[in-house]
């Protein structure tokens, strides 16, 4: 049985593992080194805190037979600056990293920051399930625009998003990576 539920603070360790799959290189850039354990710790610390872009408050988990198989993180693009501020504070005070990442989202969209599935659950349609859920719950029921970034080097993901109705609306750079900015609008 597949179920989606809001994340709980006690899910932070598992979500940090999942989130790292989705943003490995960016997390390494954030903390200033290629260290998986430190990157997971960085993410877990933020997931456990409230009012930041990676907070458990903005995360949901996909359960398969009551086991967490995947997660996703979404938030209002208009709130990026306020949600990013605590992230930048942690980077500055704990990791001595004073960075100013580009804006990956914008006002007028609900931003899908990460979608990730554990490797052993991939290929079972769970990514599709999450996208269908978000399209129904956010775009169709709430009449909100969904936005996301897809790396130019990931044509498979882009093809999936296009198959769901996402359209390329521009390009965005995040840290050292270029991405296509895609949006899903109800009825378009």
Automatic annotation (TrEMBL):
Keyword hit for Acyltransferase: yes
Keywords: Acyltransferase, Transferase
Protein name according to UniProt: GNAT family N-acetyltransferase
Domain spans labelled N-acetyltransferase: 2-187
SUPFAM superfamilies: Acyl-CoA N-acyltransferases (Nat)
Gene3D superfamilies for the chain: 3.40.630.30
Lineage: superkingdom: Bacteria
Pfam families linked to this entry: Acetyltransf_1
């Amino acid at each position: 049985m597949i179920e989606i539920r809001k994340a709980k603070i006690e899910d932070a360790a598992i979500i940090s593992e999942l989130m790292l799959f989705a943003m490995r290189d960016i997390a390494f850039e954030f903390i200033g080194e290629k260290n998986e354990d430190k990157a997971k710790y960085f993410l877990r610390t933020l997931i456990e805190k409230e009012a930041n872009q990676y907070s458990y408050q903005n995360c949901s988990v996909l359960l398969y037979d009551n086991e967490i198989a995947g997660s996703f993180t979404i938030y209002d693009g208009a709130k990026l600056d306020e949600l990013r501020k605590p992230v930048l504070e942690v980077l500055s005070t704990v990791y001595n990293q004073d960075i100013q990442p580009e804006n990956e989202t914008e006002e007028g969209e609900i931003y899908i920051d990460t979608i990730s599935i554990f490797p052993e659950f991939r290929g079972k349609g769970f990514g599709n399930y999450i996208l269908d859920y978000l399209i129904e719950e956010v775009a169709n029921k709430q009449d909100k625009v969904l936005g996301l970034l897809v790396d130019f080097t990931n044509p498979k993901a882009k093809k999936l998003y296009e198959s769901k109705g996402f359209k390329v609306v521009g390009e965005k750079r995040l840290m050292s990576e270029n991405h296509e900015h895609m949006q899903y609008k109800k009825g378009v």
